[in-house]
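Worked example (supplementary).
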Amino acid sequence: MHAKTTRFLVALLCCAWSVGAQAATKTATTKPEPKLGAAELIAQSKPQDWRGLDPENTLLMQLDSGQVIIELAPRFAPQHSANIRTLAKERYFDGLAVLRVQDNFVTQWGDPDAENAERAKPLGTAAKHVPAEFDVALKGLPLTRLPDADGWAPVTGFVDGMPVAADPRKGRAWLAHCYGMVGAGRNNPPDSSTGAELYVVIGQAPRGLDLNITLVGRVLKGMELLSGLPRGGPNMGFYDKPEQRTAIRSTQLLADLPEAERPALQVLRTDTPLWQQLLAARRDRREEWFVHNPGHINLCNATVPVRNQPAP
Amino acid sequence: MHAKTTRFLVALLCCAWSVGAQAATKTATTKPEPKLGAAELIAQSKPQDWRGLDPENTLLMQLDSGQVIIELAPRFAPQHSANIRTLAKERYFDGLAVLRVQDNFVTQWGDPDAENAERAKPLGTAAKHVPAEFDVALKGLPLTRLPDADGWAPVTGFVDGMPVAADPRKGRAWLAHCYGMVGAGRNNPPDSSTGAELYVVIGQAPRGLDLNITLVGRVLKGMELLSGLPRGGPNMGFYDKPEQRTAIRSTQLLADLPEAERPALQVLRTDTPLWQQLLAARRDRREEWFVHNPGHINLCNATVPVRNQPAP
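After joint prediction of all chains, the assembly is encoded as:
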């Protein structure tokens, strides 16, 4: 066994999907209907297949280990997004910490003293009460449908590059708890989240949370800085000791940063023929390595690519 | 917002499913048909709901950070399991390392010099060629079916506590690439894996790998030691520098350890009424926190509980 090649090929499956994959997918030449793989499709993309970021709806969370870029989802959670914008503008998150990493579930951050009324960091001018934003009207939503069966919801697809599920019978749609999605922790009352305490999905999609808690956005970059942290203890992943926590140096909107300091990322558009081609390439695997074609793709396996803006 | 409670409740969702959850699920008292939650069901389990480990089919991988316990799946991959047993008995894995951690995909370990014929560690008496073991006959398999729609396969369920998918039309069944499942890396030829290089799923289930590569078992304990490692670089998660690697001190079968050093774990049986009740509790969430009942469970969200053997 040539381990290098072996490793390469086991690796390839994810990489072909990600942007900046140096290892291009090999297009099978001996199989019928050879098509481009995901990496080739991305390599051949046009500038109009990508979009930039809205600086008013994108957060830069600075850790000692690097930057985490989070895109908010104001179409799905307008009031939470607005509150998080206020919290970021007033530097609420600066100096807070990652408090919890529960394996195969979530990484969560916020104020370690939030439960202590005297020591809790004030929310400033941010709202202390925000309505639950679990779903929105399906009608009028620019949903790019994914035809593949989901199990959790009758319809799935993509809106603004975010994974979405929907129920046409009820006329409702909602963000789905896929890997990298960011949500707002809440108490028993459905409307008890404010956006001051956030979590990100780091394991198998806990889709049972869908429609039960407000998702507010998606990590575009730096996910590995949140998913690769040491797990907390048996108390649901909460760190036992303060020194285990990861400090959050700052969290700011890109709009509040000097233009030169704003990461120039681009997100692949999900309302294009290229996105459909990418989904097809991911569904029907024609790379030489595959002996069985899955012929299926799940919403949460179809992560929307992000790249650094190419030099002009 | 009472953050402590908030955190508690967001936490609860996973915890109620895991063994040893201190925070018991609250049974709703105001909703119709109150039923026991998963944590209560496990707390009320009988000794016969659990089974011990086969020392000849369980590996203890010793890292500096702790122990990883891996249960092999000889029913599905008899020849890979036998080869891995041989490799472990001859201490092939001792001194190897975690070479790769690709975010939302796999952690992979093996011989860093495997590609170098002169420096590669010899496989000893282990087979240099092992047939692909991608699927087995469905007929006769003690499959506990999961009725919920999957998308990737017409049938899913559990055998010996492992997640399994099946196609009755073809009469075949196979292990599914869920979080924590361990596989044997291979090259382009389907029969190019030997079990000397292994990976474990650390993200959203890459079910597109099913039927394409041999799965050999499941991590029963210590998963967080493999999933919580720093991610490798853009080269598909391979570490750029040897010092980034995590050393594997040793990997032995429990059978080759003194009895006192064998971890006394138990796995919940998946051929029992209790397992059905647990699946139901996970599918229909009646805890107070939930405002929407998912009414669905996916194979890869239904991790089979593992516990320390209770004191007699």
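Two points are worth noting when inspecting this output. The helical segments of chain A are 3-15, 38-43, 78-89, 223-227, 273-283. Chain A touches chain B through 92 residues (CB under 8 Å).
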